[in-house]
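Step 1: inspect the first sequence and its tokens.
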Amino acid sequence: MAETNRRDPASVAPDARRRVLACIDDEEIVRLASDLIRIPSFTTEETACAEWLATYLSDAGFEVDLQEVRPGRKQTIAWLRGSGGGRSIMLNGHIDIDPLADGWTRDPFTPVVEDGKLYGHGIYNMKAGVTAMIMAALALKRSGLPLRGDLALACVAGELNSGIGTIHALESGVRTDLAVVTEPCGANTIITKHTGTMDLVIHTLGRAMHISRKEQGSDAIAKMMRAIAAINAMAFTHTFDRDLPGLPRLNVGSIIGGRGRNHELRGAYTVSDFCTAYVNIRFNASQSGETILADFRRTLDALKAEDLEFDYEIEFPPDPSRGLGPLAKAALDVPIGEPIVQMVKRNLKLVSGSDPEYLGVRLPYSYAGNDTTHLWAAGIPCCVYGPSGGYTDYHDVYTELDEMFLVTRVLALTALEAIVRET
């Protein structure tokens, strides 16, 4: 296998590359991406999109496995099978999308092409990448070339929940020799190093009391404000990584306070006795879930030592009903010399004429976690390569059409190089 990896990529005949590229239609790419925009697929609500993709890919002649990741929650794994004796490759992208922010100037689920951009919620993270990998696989299939190895399309659920969809796929036996995750980091970017990520939940406990006797109560919301100030100022236990200088970092993304553990909100005349905050943490390879939990406990215990009425709980892993990630997803650093990284690099140059502008780390993109963590841990060499775009304050989300078109072609040639030859 090592000998194969050292072969000149010219062992893939130029005519074969031309045949594959000739099977890519930019208008078809836009149509598929637009269809995916029209299907809302928020985290935990991916099933409609998964079922649509299962039908689409089955009709296109792929072998399809519609997997149930959690009861009622599905994802789609599709295979293009080779004749045998070749390497296999997985193109991996998540179909769950970010929460919808306020401020959109257009319907988030009505695709619009304007000034070289395709607008629609979910297209940036990451239905453009899912589109590119599907269209790349379709090009290989339509080319009619004899393929030795297998190509897997992993359209996974729950990447925003610690990657539970990719974990499920791996546990169900989906394995390949190589993989590319099509996260939105840029058509001239190959990422091999990125943050770890985890979610946790903090509760502060108080004592309910009517406003007329407010002084006799203990306000859980006020305690949470103190807790947030303390954790925002917290010194994490870690070793500085000059490649990722903005780590570690955390964000308190959601807060709710009220009466009782179900946060009863009727009765603003009563002091809150239970307040909850959702926190996301990004961290480097010197840290783990255990060290981060210890840092939180140390910080909050210091508040408790100052105030005997300060009481808190940390919930990790978060209850599944919260839709948060259940794992501490490790930071990743894949060697740039890995064959899959070099394959993407040389096929990018074949298509665009240029080497990647960024190779290894790109900030702030490397402050985002992704499913390469799980693939690498499973022994599958991998990297991140996918089309980027943008947004304004998380609304009016778009992808750059030229990036989606370029990534489709690079993925098609990379997959061709991976599976057309013998191992």
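Step 2: inspect the second sequence and its tokens, then contrast the two.
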Amino acid sequence: MKTRSDKLFNGPDSEENILRSDPLREDAMKIVKETIKAVLPEEAVIKALMQKEFNNKEKIVVVAIGKAAWNMARATKETLGDPISKGVVITKYGHSKGPIGSFEIVEAGHPVPDENSVKGAEKVLKLVSGLTKADQVIFLISGGGSALFEKPMEGVDLQDIMDITHQLLTSGGDIVEINTIRKRLSALKGGRFAALCGESDIFSIVLSDVIGDRLDSIASGPAYPDCSTAEEALEILEKYDLQVADPIKEILKIETPKVVENCETVITGSVRALCEAAATSAKHLGYETMIITSTLDCEAKDAGKFLASMAREIIDFKGESPVITPPCAVIAGGETVVRVTGNGKGGRNQELALSAAMGIKGLKDVVLFSLGSDGTDGPTEAAGGMVDGTSVEKMKAAGVSPEEYLNNNDSYTALKASGDLIITGATGTNVNDVAVLLIRR
């Protein structure tokens, strides 16, 4: 099966621009490519399918939701073939790569749902309507499903969900908190979709984009019992001072299903695998590696400061027992958050990179990149950023103040000015983010 690894870096900013004929940046880009290639979902999906028996089923239908839905659905269709009667794929705009047999493919809004999110869900509900114990649903889930797969609860409008989602995304809340609210406003999330599949068996293959692989939070857990409570949802409203109407607060008090009996779930990928893939690639290039965490969940700008401080510590270390010495790669995976206080453009990986650029200003033989594995970072076409000791100088030469642009949450503009945006295009996978600090001296 062909992958998309050979089609990366087809965006408007050329790969040559970000490499700058710099061997360290070239190594960093090799790590980017090899890391993404290693976590593409097709082989993992095939492996999960081959361990399951489907021959005794009268009807097999496929439902795929999320940023990696197209790749996962294609792998399923090519593996099982004719026994699949129908399928529906719902993915982010620009993430479909063409027809998959007779499957219906819908592209919809992310990170905020839109009308197509609802239309796609309607197609799914029509597909699973009337299924019996003799039938099988293959449910392929990847990150992004919370926005892409939506049917509002009775008493909730799509606009309500859009407004609350926007507030949540700019609040600085983590993905578990965000999805604790979203699942309660949806007739599909928090285990509710499983009940809509009737008596059919559901075999769910999940590509995790949530730290700790919490299944009730990945795509807001449409076919998994919900571990969160209504009380927690109301606490999140208060914590982030979210503005919602009183009728919405009452709906948030409705408890979600705590038992789901018709779904078997297999996790096929995670951020830990992303970090290990980055470490393997760096080792092949001759770097000593250290994964410092795969559960990074602080503010993006703080993570950038921390990694920059590590770079200075490693370079300036004068003691007898350094933790790691150059040439080295320090790796951190997870999902940081951005607390939006300005009106700029960017994403968490770009904000991390911009913050780090300020911390490594003037350092030689240091490169840091932060990357969203799905190829998108916030509402931009960039996957993240790659910076070095000259990045701040290049920004200032272009009339950009890094401090002011960081405070305005305008990391995209700052990194574009210095030629430091990483643009891969949609990768076909989604297992959180990875940041890699490379030092060679």
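Step 3: confirm your contrast with the notes below.
The two ends are 40 Å apart (CA to CA). Residues 1-7, 9-13 have pLDDT under 50 and may be disordered.
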